[in-house]
Amino acid sequence: MRELDAKVITENVAEMCKEAAYYLPEDVYNGLKRGRETEKSEVGKIVLDQIIRNAEIAKAEDRPYCQDTGMTIVFVKLGQDLHITGGDFTEAINAGIAKGYTEGYLRKSVVAEPLFNRVNTKNNTPGVIYTEIVPGDKLEITIAPKGFGSENKSGVKMLVPADGVRGVKKAVMEIILHASMNPCPPMVVGVGIGGTMDRAALLSKKALTRSIDERNPMPEYAKLEEELLELINSTGIGPQLGGTTSALAVNVEWGPTHIAGLPVAVTICCHAMRHSHRIL
């Protein structure tokens, strides 16, 4: 059995938090450039120019791409033949988040209790950690800082099977239209279909870690992604002040569900569609 020291996890998570905050993924950067080329609105073109320039400055100067450096979402695939030594696994991840957000001068945005005593934890912990046990002896980590301007406009709709594809499109568009320009578009939209209410939401979050250039491998869902993107870009929401580049991509993930259900979750991400990925 392979061993991995918890301190190694902490150091890597710290580095990944900074990377995710500073460097916009290449697929998203290129998507913004493509959007600039096809944008019909003159104001939209100006906004996209500023967004692209902002990404370039952030990368060149190792500065946060957005002042909202998000709540830290962590997706983990933990090999069943890997033994974590020298400390608690969850504590190691949270220690990495604290280290990365402190050393990187990233905004700390987490409160310890959500309703009655909203006191900032001062290090952006705890992260929201999803752990999947998989075959092998590797540890795969994806860090996805999630800003709340877009998170607040996400949503879940509980449909029935009879609603079908038309119902799914209607549900997604209701959430998008309600969000309008508030999530700092152009958006990347993650859609989760199936499972339970909570599982659909998780699927929609995981969808945002997929490249915007990669379509769902199942043709029917790939077609749905393209159709939803066309519908969203026809709304006129545009890049913050109106236009034709409302979204860069729609990524759909699906899972098995109950015979009586058709849960649909939509996680909206702003143009700061940040994530970092490593295998240890």
Task: Give a verbal description of the structure.
- The chain is built from 8 helices and 10 strands.
- The protein has helices spanning 6-22, 26-38, 42-61, 89-103, 148-151, 164-179, 197-207, 219-233, and strands spanning 2-5, 71-79, 82-85, 128-134, 139-146, 155-159, 187-195, 247-257, 262-269, 276-279.
- Strands 4-2-5-10 form a 4-stranded mixed β-sheet. A 4-stranded mixed β-sheet has the order 6-9-7-8. A two-stranded parallel sheet has the order 1-3.
- The protein folds into 2 domains: 2-20 and 65-146, no CATH class; 149-273, 2-Layer Sandwich (60s Ribosomal Protein L30, Chain: A), CATH 3.30.1330.
- With 280 residues, the chain is of the alpha/beta class.
- Helix 1 crosses helix 4 (89-103), helix 2 runs antiparallel to helix 3 and helix 6 (164-179) packs parallel to helix 8.
- The radius of gyration is 19 Å and the shape is globular.
- It is 40% helix and 25% strand.
Characteristic terms for this protein:
8 helices, 10 strands, four-stranded mixed beta sheet, 280 residues, 2 domains, alpha/beta, 60s Ribosomal Protein L30, Chain: A
Which secondary structure elements does this structure contain, and how are they paired or packed?
Elements: E1 2-5, H1 6-22, H2 26-38, H3 42-61, E2 71-79, E3 82-85, H4 89-103, E4 128-134, E5 139-146, H5 148-151, E6 155-159, H6 164-179, E7 187-195, H7 197-207, H8 219-233, E8 247-257, E9 262-269, E10 276-279
Parallel strand pairs: 1-3, 2-4, 7-8
Antiparallel strand pairs: 2-5, 5-10, 6-9, 7-9
